[in-house]
Amino acid sequence: MQDTLHQHSPTISIGGRPVCNLRFADGIDLITGPQAELQVLTDRLVASSKAFGMEVCSEKSIVMVSSEGVNDASITMDDEPLELVHRFKYLGAVLHEDGSSTVEVRTRIALATAAFAKLGKIWKSSISFKAKHKLFRSLVISILIYGCETWTLLADTERRIQVLENKCLRKLLRISYKDPVTNESVRDLVVAYVGPQEPLLATV
Asked: What global pTM score does this model have?
């Protein structure tokens, strides 16, 4: 990548810091402004890889446009046009062309719900609530908030997250929704058992 980015001047910045790529192991995302800039970086990446005896797979390479007023881009790799997509997964997180996190949050909620359900025997066991709560935070919440640093939350997605957390806490406390107990009272009980907790959405 150092060879690819040699004397390259990024046109995108986040928080005042120039950004032109994301990379982890063999997963590389090139980030540019104009389409021509992306094509130049793509060509450089392919050439640099070949110079070091490596190959970039065009079949696994895609393009996503995330810009108002622009919905198309034609990028080639070794004269092969790359597929244009509306979203893609990077390091387990779904990135969407409109910058929203709705799809990713719903996916995380589904995964966390499934993880919670698989641990049903633990939630029904006689171990202390404090122990259950620690397991809940480490085995369920960690799945829910994976990659949350990049989320853009809307009111609806915040509500969905809160609904999941309230539902799980009620199960841990064995409080049914039919019982006349408010969500605020449920959270007060949690604090009484395990002490003050940082609000989940404060992590997001």
From this structure: 0.69
